[in-house]
Write a structure and sequence with these properties.
With about 450 residues, this protein is α+β, with helices and mostly antiparallel strands. About 35% of the residues lie in helices and about 15% in strands. The strands form 7 sheets. It has a 6-stranded mixed sheet, sandwiched between helices.
């Protein structure tokens, strides 16, 4: 059977259209996107390579050592892609490469050059740009040196010769807005990743019983991802039983599950670099306790309230507000809080037990880029945006997280609800009509 993951999932024409839009936005500037570096563990073992999301978004390139240059100011060589030449010795150790010729024919980019030409060509290709969109971080030190030298030259001679660039900008200033609005090919890629994620959750749920190790549930989850065709987990899975569910990013997965506990599972499958992100909280044993049932019901109502608040013209802050209001109403109903709901909201009375936002963007990255606030106002939702909805309540035993520092108020005592942690998360597409829950459990 052919593996469902394929570089052809997104056609070359779609990448070309994305580059066209970025070139238009660049105007008289240039953009430089290097590949992510390979990661080494233990001095000699390469971890599975994960391409840079921005470079992939514009090219489909999956190999390390690549470099994309977009020249908005130029009449020719507007798109230049550098990749490594084929090298039999290296390919024997780390896998096959496409080389310039293979990349050109497969990805539909006309100007693909050898990475060995970068140092000799790049300074000249950057000349003429008013500004360069490039991250001055440590991912590509050789490229950074070339960029810094180009900036020094422009500073010294630019005023008389017109040679640029004269400044550096974050590529996210342009790319984040494009990536926030998913095109149809991306939406289908996310749908596929979410389907695989749900398959993993079915396998994990079937294993839940007293005495099973969190690590065993993780193995069932990730094994099901791979059997269903996923490339990898999109992030380190969380399998948090009992009190561990109160730790937001618990990834050790080393405890044995006990009778009568809840198990919180937060995971996503990745396919063709797009991922799902789902959380479910399951009771272990015959049934949840009344206290567990109460918290599960409150969080699920908050999830549904937040989803109902999603639609074009609504705001991301409105989604969070809807979830918080429902959580606060539930906390008042079970006696953990007292007072008027709006006053409790204003006082952040839910924060000790709900310390995170309800949503984040989802796509090539689990926390996909995109501003949540624009010109001082909450982001208005538009069709094509994909976001998570993940309210939760985390009610640890007093002292579970260690002593409270002097001068800081201790968290409120959750009483007989102590030790319960619940999160329920769905992946939601904003549509022209409202919202579509991509991660709806099959029934």
């Amino acid at each position: 059977m052919t593996h469902p993951s394929s570089p052809d999932t997104i056609p070359p024409a779609q990448f070309a259209e994305r580059r066209r839009k970025v070139l238009e936005a660049l105007d008289s500037d240039a953009m430089l996107l290097p590949a992510a570096p390979p990661l080494i563990r233990g001095g000699d073992s390469e971890l599975p390579y994960r391409p840079d999301s921005e470079l992939f978004y514009l090219t489909g390139v999956r190999e390390p050592g690549a470099l994309l240059l977009l020249r908005g100011f130029a009449n020719e060589a507007r798109v230049v892609l550098y990749v490594h030449e084929r090298d039999p010795k290296m390919e024997q150790w780390t896998g096959l490469r496409a080389g310039p010729e293979g990349t050109r024919s497969h990805l539909g980019i006309d100007d693909v050059r050898s990475a060995g030409q970068i140092e000799g060509e790049l300074p000249g290709l950057l000349a003429g740009a008013e500004a360069l969109h490039f991250r001055l971080d440590d991912r590509a030190p050789r490229i950074r040196r070339i960029v810094l030298e180009a900036l020094r030259n422009a500073r010294a001679r630019g005023a008389r010769t017109g040679i640029g660039p004269r400044g550096v900008l974050d590529p996210g200033g342009i790319l984040d807005e494009f990536r926030l609005r998913k095109d149809p090919t991306e939406i289908e890629a996310i749908r596929a990743a979410v389907r695989l994620t749900l398959a993993g959750f079915e396998a994990a749920r079937d294993l839940l019983r007293p005495g099973v190790g969190e690590w065993e549930v993780e193995a069932a989850l990730t094994g099901a991802f791979r059997r269903a065709g996923a490339d990898t987990p999109a992030f380190a899975p969380i399998v948090a039983s009992g009190p561990n569910a109160c730790i937001l990013h618990y990834i050790e997965n080393r405890r044995r599950i006990e009778e009568g506990e809840l198990v919180l599972i937060d995971a996503g499958a990745e396919l063709d670099l797009y991922g799902g992100d789902i959380t479910r909280t399951f009771p272990v044993g015959d049934a949840a306790s009344p206290e567990q049932e109460a918290i599960l019901a409150i969080v699920d109502r908050a999830r549904r309230s937040a989803i109902e608040a999603i639609g074009p013209g609504r705001t991301i802050a409105g989604v969070h507000r809807a979830a918080r209001l429902t959580l606060l109403e539930g906390l008042v109903d079970i006696g953990l809080l007292e007072g008027e709901i709006e006053a409790l909201l204003e006082a952040d009375a839910d924060r000790p037990w709900f310390p995170h936002q309800t949503s984040h963007w989802l796509g090539l990255d689990t926390h996909d880029p995109g501003d949540y606030v624009v010109d001082g106002e909450s982001r208005v939702l538009e069709p094509g945006m994909v976001l998570t909805v993940e309210p939760g309540l985390y009610l640890p035993e007093p002292g579970f997280f260690g002593p409270v520092p002097d001068g800081r108020d201790p968290p409120p005592d959750p009483g007989h609800f102590a030790g319960i942690g619940v999160r329920i998360e769905d992946d939601v597409l904003v549509t022209a009509e409202g919202a579509e829950v991509l991660s709806r459990d099959p029934s």
